[in-house]
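In practice, a research group might receive sequence data for several interacting partners and want a quick structural hypothesis before committing to experiments. The following worked case mirrors that situation: the sequences arrive first, and a predicted assembly follows.
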Amino acid sequence: MDIKDYMENVGRAARAASRETAKASTAAKNAALLAMAQAIRDGSAGLLAANAEDLAEARANGLDAAMIDRLTLTAKGVESIAQGLEQVAALPDPVGEMTDMKRRPSGIQVGKMRVPLGVVGIIYEARPNVTADAAALCLKSGNAAILRGGKEAIRANQAIAACVRAGLKAAGLPETAVQVIETTDRAAVGELVAMPQYVDVIVPRGGKGLIERISREAKVPVIKHLDGNCHVYVDAAADPAKALKIVENAKTQRLGTCNTAESLLIARPVAVALAPTLCAMLTAKGVEIRGCAETQALVTNAKPASDEDYYTEYLAAIISVKIVADVGEAIEHINKYSSAHTESIVTEDYSHAMRFLREVDSSSVMVNASTRFADGFEYGLGAEIGISTDKFHARGPVGLEGLTSQKWIVLGDGEVRA
Amino acid sequence: MDIKDYMENVGRAARAASRETAKASTAAKNAALLAMAQAIRDGSAGLLAANAEDLAEARANGLDAAMIDRLTLTAKGVESIAQGLEQVAALPDPVGEMTDMKRRPSGIQVGKMRVPLGVVGIIYEARPNVTADAAALCLKSGNAAILRGGKEAIRANQAIAACVRAGLKAAGLPETAVQVIETTDRAAVGELVAMPQYVDVIVPRGGKGLIERISREAKVPVIKHLDGNCHVYVDAAADPAKALKIVENAKTQRLGTCNTAESLLIARPVAVALAPTLCAMLTAKGVEIRGCAETQALVTNAKPASDEDYYTEYLAAIISVKIVADVGEAIEHINKYSSAHTESIVTEDYSHAMRFLREVDSSSVMVNASTRFADGFEYGLGAEIGISTDKFHARGPVGLEGLTSQKWIVLGDGEVRA
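A structural hypothesis for the assembly, expressed as tokens:
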């Protein structure tokens, strides 16, 4: 197979299909999503068999347990893929929404219309459910999609792709509206991210290494999700009970998610009162404390934190702790060390809350809430294609709206420019 | 001068300044803009002297008349620069605006806050007024700016830069919030577009060659403005009087602007009635007609149009004309040949208007209005940093809002995730 030719064909077909998906009716898009869900349910046995082959090969190749876990499909997992498609069908259609229409002195009315981006390329690791999720979000937002999943999941991905195509066909939409790349050759990724004539945006879903590589090579915009080095700042005016609850939830509810807190900042005036309590709670939950000198003086089991610690997304039962003078130093520390994902202040002070909200330069900034809320479902987006740690185009959880743009529309009655 | 070191220092200073501009009060930003305007007026003589030196060198180097024209500052031009700064001061401050706050089932309130992009790099040709315009828009939107103007305008640009710094200083803002690059070495541009750690977005303002080169080299997002190959489609249900008025204005009000119509499409059912009238009007205005075979049969002085003509932004007294079957063929033609800048349909038919609005994939789509309205001022943005022909982040005229992003904010009362 000539990869360049193959990808050129995939790209050209996607661009053509994107003209159809852009103008597809809400009814047609929803019909396709529901038909996909039905095809997934009907094809469950075949899907599980394909996945079993992938798993056998993965085990033979000695893949680690975490990867095997992500790769594994169960009957329940297949049902949840089908339900995910139905949930996207139930979301409002963002395409065509007209907003902000204003009459201008010239007589024209000017406003905006929400439109698809065009062709979205999604590159992800060996998680077969992403194939259906990503297809659904791209289609609902009126985009064509080119999906490239991890090579370990190639058989399950192709089986899901067949169900997706069946759904598109049943609804009278082009089957090329969602294409799952059939080759496992890595060169296909290099081509995909360098075809601005066919691809409007790339969404990489996976580890930092994958995302950095794609950002480096891409000739098209990338919706990037890098680290989640999230902070909770316990202000001098914090309610101690809320602080305890929020720190506990933010750090320990799940250790391995990107919105898990990795660093705890405590205002000096309440450090003596709160640092020991907060750290004792974390220690009791099995979390290792790495603190500054002041933290170590207050918390006997605290190990020393290096500068590197404050930059680190542990994704593990470790937290860095620092005593800071006030909300100003907390903001300064966060804007230096954080990965601009999600930060929360615990405070009852209005001015401190407003200053934190305004000055912390992260994609989600919270007052008196757990960082764990930074999530498309929790925010009411209905679904999420990823969480952007960039500022351009979309920040934070990206749902259907993040896969669209707005064009200007002008409604006139024969006006001309003077 | 080591260009790499120099640009590294400029970038680092801009990043630091951007933290200050992001949190600057509306009052401080406006005070800086008004002080800049005053400094420009007070420094008028010096500015004109610097410009005279630039002009003398430009003439000695044999620059063409159009470039000399763009480079030339007059006393009136200086006053209009000062007024431009005052107009930006009068615009509403977009930074900090909180919108879409919604209460979620968990109890948290989720919404968005508008925030600056950070550091904006602007690369432009030899038009000294852009130095002040760009500085004003970046500052008002809370960004730091790095400006790189054409080398022919270096003395005037540095004189304006001194006024900008004086204004910043008077308002207590860092003078590094707007830096005008002091070297004319082209390597500085290469460095500027490849410092993602310091620069968040590049806005090139200039010819297609400049923009293509920058897009190729850039390692940061670029707000691109390529061609304006704009269309007027006269539908079968067009009001002939509106058609005549709109085609005349769109093509002939100004020949050299990006929102000037370059191509006229006419629906076949009205071609016999309207093509001769429309083309006679254009011919009378000195516009050369290049048409398809059907156009040539109806319009005796029409020259043949090649496929290349339909792709061309003439920026001259030439128009391409094509007879199409209906609104469907018009949309198809436009989505193939246009540069996705601005297109207008002339029609009294509701369904045709709605279909055109929805399916034409351009940054501005109009009904019964001249393409010449595609402009930040006409749209009510108050000012314009450029017109984006991209879909990502911003489409069409880009004002203050296009220089900002939205972060998520969460207001809680101790909520944690279940």
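Before designing any experiment, note the following. The two ends of chain A are 59 Å apart (CA to CA). Chain A has a mean pLDDT of 95.
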